[in-house]
Structure prediction request, 212 residues.
Amino acid sequence: MIIVNFKAYSEAEGDKARELAEKCRQASQETGKKVIVCPSAQDISKTSIDGIRVFSQNVDPVKPGSHTGSITAEGVKKAGVSGTLLNHSEKRMKKEEIKASIELCQEHELITVVCAQSPEECAQLSKFEPDYIAFEPPELIGGNTSVSEAKPEVIEEAVRSSSVPVLTGAGIKTRKDVEKSIELGCEGVLVASGVVKADNVLKEVKELCQGL
Ligand code: G3P
Prediction:
């Protein structure tokens, strides 16, 4: 699978979020590979189109109630989301918050992808039994060198350390980056700038799909 994280990029907001989701769906349909879009919370409804799965970028460890500004598992489920990232490097959570959010997501049958910055964290966080761990070295996020190129041995260690399936991300831009990640034992990749900032989004997502 490929998870396309829209982050809070201006290229992926409002109507542009919908266009991006449509291109991801087209790439997925043309290649037969699973592509998941992960828009910011304000664009979840814009990207909820038939034929593509939508993930939230975060779920807070709270139930519906007096929690101004919070994103709840119940709320995103009702908005049509099928899973969520948790603990992204740009949205770090405390261990007990990660555990509580996973439990709330499980109650609402949401797939959980918990981000981890090191093989040690992959080991620790996989004990909370999310559906996936996503290994992303923070220093490579948003850059031009991919994790699979720069740290193949660390990806292997992350896969060995986790008790649940592993995805990887950071700097992923080419079919080769995806192929290498899969070869090292990952089930898929997370990508943001490589797709969101691509001149030709459809071509880019199709190329990445071909590496799966
Ligand atoms: O969640 C994916 C992300 O952190 C990787 O970002 O821009 O390096 O693909 P990027």
Observations:
- The chain has a mean pLDDT of 98.
- The pocket of SN-glycerol-3-phosphate is lined by residues 5, 88, 136, 141-142, 169-172, 190-194 (CB under 6 Å).
- DSSP finds ten helices and eight strands in the chain.
